[in-house]
Amino acid sequence: MKILDFGLAKHAAMKPAGASHPTELATQPIETNPGLVLGTAGYMSPEQVRGQVADARSDLFSLGVVLYEMVSGKRAFTGESGVELMNAILKQEPPELDAALPPALDRMIRRCLEKKPEERFQSALDLAFALESISGTTSSGTQRIPEKRQRRYAWTIVLVAGACLLAVAFIAGRRTSRTPSPSFQRVTFRRGVIDNGRFANGGRTIAYSAAFDGNPFRIYSTQAESPESRDLGLANAHLLGVSSSDEMALALTPGLMFATGTLARAPISGGTPRAVADDITAADWASDGQRLAVVRAKPGFQQLEFPVGNILYQTTGSIVSPRISPKGDLIAFVDGPLGATGAIGSVATVDTKGNKKTLTQLWLGWIEEVAWSPSGDEILFAAAAHGDTTSLYAVNRSGRQRSITHLPGAFDVLDVAPDGRLLMSHAVVSLSLFYRPAIDSKETDLYWHDFSSLSDISRDGKALLFAEAGDATRRGEDFVSYLRGTDASPAVRLGNGYPLELSPDGKWAVALGPMRAPSQLVLLPTGTGEARPLTHDGIHHQGAAWTPDGKRIVFVGNEPGHRIRYYVQGVDGGPPRAITPDDVTFNSFDPVAISPDGKSVAVAGLDGKIVLYPLDDGTPGAVPKLENGLVPLRWCKDNSLMVYQPGDLPVKIHRVDLETGEQSLWRELAPASRTALIGIPSTRVGADCRSSAYSAQYFPSELWLVDGLR
Predict the structure, then answer these.
(1) How many CB atoms lie within 10 A of CB 24?
(2) Within 13 Å and on the Cβ side, how many CA atoms surround 24?
(3) Which helix H or strand E contains 652, and what residues bound it?
(4) Which of 240, 327, 586, 646 has minimal Cβ neighbours within 10 Å of its Cβ?
């Protein structure tokens, strides 16, 4: 029996907040001096030679030296003295291995022996995966290898694989033994939705905002030692941040989650909030406890300000979760693209001069919050590329990303305590799909996979067009289009993409294709036929509707050099043509309201007014007497327009006479169950102007305290 020695062990301690990287381990002196070079010279890694901190990647270098010696019969590094040997480890590459050695094995050993730790396998598990490619690999080239030599390399591969497996088990076991398992402790226990939380009082207190049992949002505080929470007496308030001096930044609004409100400051100990700024969606405190970074909503765009009033960045997309670095030199945030539906975006930073840098990919499944590590070197976030089962990641200032752990469900990182503990929220997101054929009829929930996002009611009222997303799609698509009968018959899967509207004859659905920039329109058959692309342009498409004759599509989008505009295009081809100026607005969950004669479209402007634009020649006309902020839903045959005010709960649909501007309440929509309800993102009125449908979004959530993740 042979015992493989992979170096001397060091006792590892967690890294202090001021260190350069949160995953580095600091060496505690035990009978030796810090910086002392320890190890068997020929098998030491470059970082050990330099007396630097060593981690699992150092063990993999030592393993690579052993494997090299096994397959070649020679030392990887040589020298006349210990000094020369260590110099070879630092600066020289091992001699080339036999050309007849399987290339996969050669590459594996070479990667283990990379000088820089970041260029080696990053874990024993990565090395184990690499072993899978060796068994079926043969030597390359046309050179014939003697049978005796073939047998020798076959046995070498077997021995190397066995040695690697033992080493992987040894390294993984050793690392696991000195890294405690993370602990998850639930902090809140009432039923409802929690939209934000922050550490306070040096990490001993947790402040958060929540709407429990169907009531309005309020501010609460709690501590990890107690299951009880204290109501701070602030109603219709959303927590945005807590300063180093325990002063809260709040958004005062009766609205639901993600609502725009008045920024106010209030001490966590109690007191009347003091208003600071209007139209604020998010905010964060600088480490000095005085300055605030805010996201301000403007008609058609959002802007990031730091300090308040100083604009650093503007976008027609979204700016979510702004967080100021501990040094105050960068603001991290989730940068959402124009027209994105749901928690979609990438992690980005902007410096105090307004220079923006995107650090991660565009996450299509889930991303809502970011938080800085205590040292300020990394940004922590939970995200999912597809579906809503997240992983915890960290990305540094230069964009190097690492995976920390997989998480069971939809989690968000709300804050990081000075000692490294994480405050996280966990939610189960669902969408119900309600349909009512007439005012005096019963409302029916026709949800399918618990994430049913309504898009359209068929012209005859016999079917609903909707999208499914999340883990239920199973195959990694962004969205999947479905059609379900209003008689509650099983839903039919139409294809990939986010559906927008059914054709007048019900044979096709126009949909947004896979979510990439710029997004394009596709046609999905509801019966026989094949899906086909509709657009091939540089326009980023958002919403679309058919003209009553089924020959043209009116869609919403933006192209380089322009904000959002409405376009018209023939179904059988031809270039799109803009029919509105750039001063319009559109929500991706809303419909496109075309007149029954197919000659005009009702459009909400940036000024809050509704304007009727002709599809061809003609003069636009404004709807008289309407209050600002209303959104068109359906143009009825009696020349009335169904409109609603976004953000209201219940949703109040009014019928407007387009000639006089007179309006009357037509219907109020809201589910009977309000607990954990965060809004009604999509509402539709049928072509008969009698039926209605909507999706209600639920977000039951709780706070968790997580320790031991680095």
Answers:
(1) 16
(2) 18
(3) strand 651-657
(4) 327
Query: Is there a contact between 273 and 252 (Cβ–Cβ < 8 Å)?
Result: yes
- Determine the residue type at 237: A
How confident is the model over 319-373, as pLDDT tens digits?
Answer: 999 999 999 999 999 998 865 555 789 999 999 999 999 999 988 778 999 999 9
Torsional class of 48: left (φ above 0), alpha (ψ -120 to 50), beta (otherwise): alpha
Could you report the per-residue pLDDT of 251-276, keeping only the tens digit for each?
Answer: 999 877 777 899 999 999 878 999 99
Which CA distances in Å does 488 have to 446, 492, 503, 584, 646?
6, 12, 21, 38, 29
| Residue pLDDT, tens place only, 520-561 | 999 999 999 999 999 988 898 999 999 999 999 999 998 888
Q: Which residues contact 658 (CB under 8 A, 6 or more apart)?
A: 612, 623, 639, 640, 641
667 vs 652: CA distance, rounded Å: 6
| 183 touches 160 (CB < 8 A) | no
**Cα–Cα nearest to 493, from 518, 468, 462, 520:** 468
Checking if the pLDDT of 141 tops 60, the result is no
Q: What is the model's pTM? A: 0.70
Residue type present at position 120:
R
Half-sphere exposure in the Cβ direction for 428 (13 Å, CA): 6
Q: 126: Cβ–Cβ under 8 A, 6 or more apart, which residues?
A: none
Residue type, 6: F
Q: Model confidence over 24-51: pLDDT tens digits?
A: 333 333 333 334 445 567 888 998 887 7
In angstroms, the CA 496 to CA 492 distance is 12
**C-alpha closest to that of 603 among 638, 574, 565:** 565
State how far the Cα of 332 lies from the Cα of 71, in Å rounded to an integer: 49
Name residues whose C-beta falls within 8 Å of residue 591's C-beta, 6 or more positions apart in sequence.
Answer: 456, 501, 543, 545, 632, 633, 634, 684
Confidence of residue 154 (pLDDT cuts 50, 70, 90): low
Cβ within 8 Å of residue 111, ≥6 positions away: 64, 119, 120, 121, 130
d(CA 709, CA 420): 8
